[in-house]
């Protein structure tokens, strides 16, 4: 249970095992307000023990439920926040599809989003997360413009 990982964790139980090794059980029991045995169950290989779903497994189920209910923006907001913590940015696998019939309408559609972005940036009370989310929404709109231009010209985005 407290062995040094030989590779980055591919499974959630391996992640908890690595956390035990690098952070110690005391840190995890304090953070999750659970006993050592529960932390050990979360880090156990389910093929060789009676492990239980750990918080990451449950979190992934929660994200899937949001995606199933077409709430991708909500799910992506929290995942993007976590990506930022580890020095990464969340990028969609595919370019967004334009939702307007012409490049002119796509560009007009940007105005409100750009205004919201500027408003967040100028607000002295806005948080880093709010600024980043507003920026990501604006970038998505710009990508829609690019995809529409590509579609209109027969280019592959």
Task: Give the helix/strand layout.
Blueprint (H helix, E strand, L loop, with lengths): L11 H12 L1 H8 L3 H7 L12 H14 L3 H14 L17 H20 L5 H26 L4
Helix pairs in contact: 1-2, 6-7
How would you characterize this protein structure?
About 65% of the residues lie in helices and about 0% in strands. The radius of gyration is 21 Å and the shape is elongated. The protein has about 160 residues and is mainly α. The chain is built from seven helices and no strands. Among the domains are: about 1-50, no CATH class; about 105-155. Helix 1 (about 10-25) crosses helix 2 (about 25-30) and helix 6 (about 105-120) packs antiparallel against helix 7. It has helices at about 10-25, 25-30, 35-40, 55-70, 70-85, 105-120, 130-155.
Task: Offer a concise description of the structure.
The chain is an all-alpha fold and 157 residues long.
Structure characteristics:
157 residues, elongated, mainly alpha
Tell me the number of helical segments per DSSP (H or I, 4 or more residues long): 7
Subunit organisation of the chains: single chain
Low-confidence regions: none
What sort of overall outline do the alpha carbons produce when their principal axes are compared?
Answer: elongated
Biggest sheet overview? none
Order of helices and strands: HHHHHHH
Number of strands: 0
SS class: mainly alpha
